[in-house]
Specification:
Helices cover 9% and strands 35% of the residues. The protein is mainly beta. It has 2 domains: 111 residues, Immunoglobulin-like (Sandwich); 190 residues, no CATH class.
């Protein structure tokens, strides 16, 4: 695998974020872009339609600025299309860090939390994440939004939640497919009531892709497809298979909990995966048969009860699946 050097180019500092001017050679034409948490600015001779994470944003002209609210931590795919043809594309990763060494400070002279964006072409995928060096193998943390305590596990140099996310700002019946928050087999709209169910306590919440992208707590994010791949390689997958879809190897026994499955695992990794099921087509299904987990791209992961396979394939974005957040 070709290695590149990571760099961060700071352009501006506005309020509590910094933005990096990120350039990538387009397929045709020329595009200069600046991405921040509140907007994306384009200077280009291409005309077409801008999409962010497959959502249409608006028509691109020579000098265009779009206010956007759907840029979140993790992977962000930018594309300019004309019809179905992709004229230009770029992938950026949104990172949050408490210790970025830049010149701005709050009035009380305490360092301001910085959020910055880097082009994925500049990332050395083998570089260690020094943010995670302070974590023990096992531990717990509190979600400041609702006070819920989560277990975590360090696998290689990654720090994963060791249980499914259970953040539940609202809950909807299975017929409300646009809602995006469900608790398995719960058919009401009362959050407090839903939280008393055994399925909530054991399996957490099922999210559609739209809500999944914004539901991880501060300091954590929805893992990218490549971050799932890093986990798989750590568990023994051949690096040559990292671009493959479908069956990824008999790795799931190391991820599966020792109880809860008809075909239990060893949980050697401490990930403690459970068969939490899914929801879609106005029904809950497959609990005790399998579990599905989102990434921030089209491809999620599935573990089922037939053997110990882990599978990568596109998940239906309106359906409800589980989340395992990854530490930034």
């Amino acid at each position: 695998m070709k290695k590149t050097t990571i760099f961060i180019l700071v352009i501006t500092i506005t309020s509590l974020f910094t933005a990096c001017d990120l350039e990538q050679k387009p397929k045709i034409g020329d595009v200069k872009s600046t991405v921040t948490y509140g907007s994306i600015k384009l200077n280009t001779n291409i005309t077409g339609t801008l999409y962010i994470n497959e959502e249409e944003i608006g028509e691109v002209k020579k000098h265009t600025e779009f206010p956007v609210n759907n840029i979140v931590r993790g992977k962000c795919n930018l594309e300019i299309k004309k019809g179905k043809e992709i004229l230009w594309k770029k992938t950026v990763i949104i990172i949050e860090n408490d210790t970025i060494n830049v010149s701005t400070e709050k009035n009380n002279n305490e360092p301001t939390k910085k959020k910055y964006i880097v082009d994925t072409d500049t990332i050395n995928k083998d570089k260690k994440n020094t943010n995670n060096e302070r974590f023990d193998k096992l531990g717990s943390f509190s979600d400041n939004r609702d006070g819920k305590i989560y277990k975590y596990v360090k696998i290689g140099n990654q720090v994963w939640m060791a249980e499914n996310l259970a953040y539940l700002p609202k809950v909807c019946s299975i017929e409300q497919y646009e809602c995006g928050y469900w608790v398995y087999d719960y058919k009401g709209n009362n959050v407090s009531e839903a939280k008393t169910t055994e399925n909530y306590k054991k399996h957490g919440v099922l999210y559609n892709w739209r809500t999944a992208k914004r539901s991880c707590p501060e300091g954590w994010h929805l893992p990218t497809d490549y971050e799932w791949t890093i986990l798989e390689i750590e568990l023994g997958m051949d690096k040559e298979r990292e671009e493959e879809t479908g069956f990824r190897g008999n790795l799931a026994t190391k991820l599966k909990a020792k109880t809860g499955w008809r075909n239990n695992g060893t949980n050697e990794s401490g990930f403690t995966a459970l068969p939490s099921g899914s929801c879609g087509d106005n029904e809950f299904s497959f609990k005790e048969f399998g579990g599905w987990w989102w990434s921030n791209s089209d491809y999620g992961r599935n573990i089922n009860d037939h053997g110990h396979k882990i599978t990568k394939y596109p998940l239906t974005k309106d359906n409800g699946y589980s989340i395992r957040c990854l530490h930034d």
